[in-house]
Amino acid sequence: MTGADLYIVLLAMIGGAIRVSTPFMFVALGECLTEKSGRINLGHEGNLVLGAMVAYAVSFMTGSPWLGVLAAGGAGLVLGAMHGWICALPRVNDIAVGIAFMSFGTGLAFFFGKSFIQPSAPGLEAIGLGDWTGNSAIAQALQVNPLFLVGIALAVFLSWALANTRWGLILRMTGDSAASARAMGVNIDLVRLLATAVGGLLAGIGGAFLSLYYPGSWNEGLSSGQGLMAVALVIFARWDPIRCVWAALLFGAAGALGPSLQSIGISQGYYFFNAAPYILTLFIMIASARSKSAASDAPGELSIVK
Amino acid sequence: MNALSPTTLRAPSLQTEGMTKIFGPLVALDDVSIDIKAGSFHALLGENGAGKSTLVKCIMGFYHADKGKLRLDGAEVAVASPRDARAHGIGMVYQQFTLVPCLTAAENLVISRADAPAVIDWKREMPKLQAFMERMPFRVPLDRRVASLSAGEKQKLEILKLLYLEQRFLILDEPTSVLTPGEADEVLGLLGDMARRGDVTVLMISHKFREVKAFCDSFTVLRRGQLTGSGDAQIATVAEMSAMMIGDTPIRERSARSARHEDRTVLELNALYADDAEGRPAIHAVDLKVKAGEIVGIAGVSGNGQSALVEVLSGQRPLKDGRLFINGKPFEPTRKDFDRFKVFGLPEEPLKNAAVPRMSVAENIAFRSYDKPPISSLGWWLSPGPLRRKGEDLIDRYKVKTASPDSPIESLSGGNVQRAILARELSGEVDVLIVANPCFGLDFASVAEIRTQIMEQRNRGAAVLLVSEDLDEVLELSDRVAVMSGGSITYVAPIGETDRNTIGKHMAGH
Questions:
Q1: Would you call B118 and A172 a contact, using CB atoms and an 8 Å cutoff?
Q2: What is the number of H-type helices and E-type strands within chain A?
Q3: Is B102 in Cβ contact with A172 (below 8 Å)?
Q4: Does domain A3-117+145-298 sit in CATH 1.10.3470?
Q5: What confidence tens digit (pLDDT) does each residue in A96-122 have?
Q6: pTM of the predicted model as reported, rounded to 2 decimal places
Q7: Does domain B265-342+429-507 have CATH number 3.40.50.300?
Q8: Which residues of B are less than 8 Å from A165 in CB distance?
Q9: A256-274 pLDDT, tens per residue?
């Protein structure tokens, strides 16, 4: 591999990180918000796939991809709110409900999405942040979707809001010590319902990115487990929205490894490199399970921590 | 926010009149009238289940009294919920902390306010909080996460929170159980000063007569839901107060300490190290020897490594480094060695640590013997008959009150669970006994009985290691006292050569 090749691979990976990371980022931020309230929603894979389908269908029918994004958020919101409501019932386990919602969301999407596999819907336009350089490789890598920027702004906002608003403090309190929250008259179930619903909305928007930008079409193999990986990512990011963005970029870069190696003609082990995000997930889970600081940053009410 | 400016807020007086609370067949509170004067430091005494917390929960609005009135400064008030209590300036410090561990002290204070702003401007709030701290008799670092504060600091912050919320009637539920004697005296002394200045009125639930005598000026005693006495805490004697608490329940005579005749080391802990769940050192270079016929009591404030030490000795926590010896032979905390060296234990919270709550009393009693004849044959066949007979026999001998040997052990009262465990652990021959907070949460009669049993084992020649957060228990039972602080044993002395003050200083880490 020459220096030029390395440059191409790195640039392609940066471009890939920006492109591939966005759904990870949205699901991770949604999951982060949900887990900060003391609940785990494993159903985000369902939100992601249903969001992708709904966004594609709405964009196809109305011709407006942004309406599709809104509709995807709405679908995610409904799924999240249902999860939050069911988990508030006595003796209901959030992990089991999450797994049920994973199947429910994807099943729903496959059922209603059959007729949208063929037609082509208008997608989201990217902003060419690198066009001024005149270098086509850089311009290609810095094709940034507005949702990527929205995701980063959202992470900054969440991080600020968790420390500087009453809602943020109440959310963290509910997630860390339900007894204290109850003693202060906080309606725990309501806080968790809202957090799970908004978390679901974010995951739905993440799905819209999949079908409307990259890969940019609707089919049943679209997500291939990204919604689940994002849950691992939140643990890796130790429940911090800003770190969620970095972790999403890392996962995105890992996902771009296979295609970027292929672009310089290395196609051996293509499938192996494509599996990089999954391998990364595995190692991250092992590493973070052994990490001592992860345990102290975890919200105290999470069922996996208790 | 003008906390503690005496011109605007004064300590209120509080009375209950004929307070009654009935839970199904149980009269938890029977026509209780108490009178707490403004600016007094009032003790509420009583055994477990006497109705103290029911009374306090009625005052706080957690329970709705079936009958009775509550007066604040002479005027009748209706408290339907904890929120109402707060609006009337009545606040409570619970035994379990209500601070949020992941928030800082400052965040905990601000969010506890009913009028916490939607967006918190920390540049404005911090100076205000600092100014509030300046006026307080004790301080806590504002920018640290509560999870990293010591138990004493947390307790102080709980009290500061009530004052920050301008609550002038403070209810404290056994506030000193997590503090060193020094910290306890400091906190109670300062609260006493505030009460005398007329800033606050304090109602303290307590078990410790020493604190009641030292800091309180009036008291009320409850027994089985009824008021059995009240008066001036400085005039009434401890004997009078305890008589009101226990009533005429006969208490088993404590067994006397017999003179020691052996000087043989049985249990030896040699440079023990172990980590806590997060990988930080929990115990550190612990060396200790316990002789035959000796009780070594380990005192210390909760969370200084005592529970980790007991877990290491009972095989619940891996040892990182160090050796254990019994009679000079290496000992591994496994079932085989427990049997071989006759090591037995009474852990704290026996229902959690020494029993399977949903298994029957007889089965729980058989845990040490189910794999031996006569219960087991061929090493694997379990016979329910002998198991049940052994259970019945021990239930009888140790006076365990249970509906039947087949009832689940979780249906028993705390004292009876502890008795069932005693029956299992102490009915055979005991060489080493490891005991942790054996009397926590038990009534007077059970406490006396359990301490007697421990003393009898000592007199029979067992080496006893007693870990207790109750300094009085350590002082009563021990032949030698050790203090654990910061994960190490920092002090060891024969009981005759030490006193409460010296031990307290070492507990505080000095």
A1: no
A2: 15, 2
A3: yes
A4: yes
A5: 999 999 999 999 999 999 988 888 888
A6: 0.78
A7: yes
A8: 118-120
A9: 888 788 878 877 877 888 8
